[in-house]
Design the sequence.
């Protein structure tokens, strides 16, 4: 079961998780062209080996360890993680569209600073 990046990454995107992932399954990396415009990073669900290294590395607690553990307010971002594929323009656009819809639908969450956002995910 893959790990999932959620909305505290929006506005943070510091790539700390990329640096610790042993299988390079978190994208876009800083050296990939999509990085500058991506709203957040995504975990490739088929490549993630569930090692858990990214969770403590994330300074804003954006990463959940399974789809089931991902709070209801973040469920659409499970799909964004699923569809994102670096280098596939259509997939990137689809994932970014899901994130934009999430942002538009959750003005309440987006008004919370990224560092505090995970604490209110379940509320
Ligand atoms: S759980 Fe491990 S393999 Fe999966 S994204 Fe995190 S660091 Fe990478
Ligand atoms: S460590 Fe957290 S905030 Fe930083 S890029 Fe990864 S998921 Fe996003």
Sequence:
């Amino acid at each position: 079961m893959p790990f999932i990046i959620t909305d505290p990454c929006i506005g943070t995107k510091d790539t700390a998780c990329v640096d610790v992932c042993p299988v390079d399954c978190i994208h876009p990396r800083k050296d990939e062209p999509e990085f500058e415009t991506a709203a957040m990073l995504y975990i490739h669900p088929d490549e993630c080996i569930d090692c858990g290294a990214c969770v403590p590395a994330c300074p804003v607690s954006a990463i959940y360890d399974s789809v089931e553990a991902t709070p209801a307010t973040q469920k659409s971002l499970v799909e964004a993680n699923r569809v994102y594929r670096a280098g596939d323009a259509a997939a990137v656009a689809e994932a970014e569209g899901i994130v934009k819809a999430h942002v538009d639908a959750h003005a309440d969450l987006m008004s919370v600073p990224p560092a505090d956002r995970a604490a209110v995910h379940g509320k």
Summary: The chain has six helices and four strands. The mean pLDDT is 96.
